[in-house]
Amino acid sequence: MKIEEGHMKIPVHRFYKNTRKLVLFRGIRYYKENRAALEKQVDNTYYFDVQGEKNLYHVVLNIADDDTIVFASCDCPYSEAGYCKHQVSAFLDVLKRQDRLDIQDLQNKEGLKEKHKSEIAPKGWSAEDFKKLQEFNVADYLNSFRREELIFIMINYMKQDMKLFMYLFHHYIVELERNKIKDWS
Ligand SMILES: [Zn+2]
Fold first, then answer.
1. What integer is the mean pLDDT of 82-95?
2. In the listed set 76, 106, 136, which residue is the last one of a domain according to the structure?
């Protein structure tokens, strides 16, 4: 699951600021191939099904009244920085619906600035700590906790920041929708 929440507010039409150039181009291709299908729109929340190479992915975009991106999620395995191609194709569809899609113009934009691991440690970080950060395997670390400990940590985190809560809620809603479809067949 890919969920991207900007640290700064990005307007929808500037989503490319948080997208790698290669991913942007792939997303444009996906859009042109009509892979993004809007399944549902509830106020400013858009639910897309995007046909990937093999699997169908679910993209949810939530856009604030001031046109900035609140959150964008996708359940594909993409784990690099920035939005994935499924999210890109969904953003393009939203822009098209609002009659402000200019693909030609988009192709000339500068995307996400690539960050390299060889960067020197940021202010306030010792080189040693920074090295530890780069080598930190969060999956392994999470594996070291017991289930109850993980729940405790997650709930505590949610008390400070709702993003994880919304992320889980999205998961829950997608599951509900999936089960509804199951009931029909
Ligand atoms: Zn994706």
1. 97
2. 106
